[in-house]
Amino acid sequence: xxxxxxxxxxxxxxGRGIAANFAKAGHITAVWDxxxxxxxxxxxxxNIVVATPGDMAAAGAMMVYVVPATPEIEASFEGPDxxxxxxxxxxxxxxxxxxxxxDTKRLAARATDAGIQYLDAAMSGGATGADxxxxxxxxxxxxxxxEACRARLEAIADNMYFLGEVxxxxxxxxxxxxxxxxxxxxxxxxxxxAERAGAEAFGHDRRxxxxxxxxxx
Length: 217
Prior knowledge:
Layout (H helix, E strand, L loop, with lengths): L5 E4 L5 H10 L4 E4 L3 H8 L4 E3 L2 H6 L3 E4 L4 H8 L5 H4 L5 E4 L5 H13 L3 E8 L1 H7 L2 E6 L2 H11 L3 E8 L3 H29 L9 H11 L1
Helix pairs in contact: 1-7
């Protein structure tokens, strides 16, 4: 197997675009997903090889997790063929999930004990941003490690914010979600209040239809 410099675990709506952009930038990129179909869809792409997380760690890769949350990452850490047992010097983990900061800190401590640098890098931008390589990353962990990786991460992100110790990126993502969802719910309620106040012309006047769309979406 060609030795990868980057590994991407999780090839769903976000991960497949992230892996493709790393490969497009010229990085030998290992990919893994529990779905064989997802792996096969990328297997023939230039600069992409299929490898397990344990094999990525054994190669000392910068591993990027694009899975649902902490439990999926921790599962890949376990066992004699897992990441913790196999990690070579220089292995780095970037956790792009949206997870609870305390869980992130606990998992990062396990990684540190195995000689792995663990950074949380919660992402924003959706599948469109992942495909375009224009994500925003909110990062916590060792700043020197992040700076050493910055050039590689530029293949997937336009904006990167280093926020402090491990867990800070995930904390900011949860705050970001709270603010976004609060604004959305407030906007929806404003639209309902307008209707209850007698703004019945929403359904008849094009200008008010545009206002209603702006309020609700």
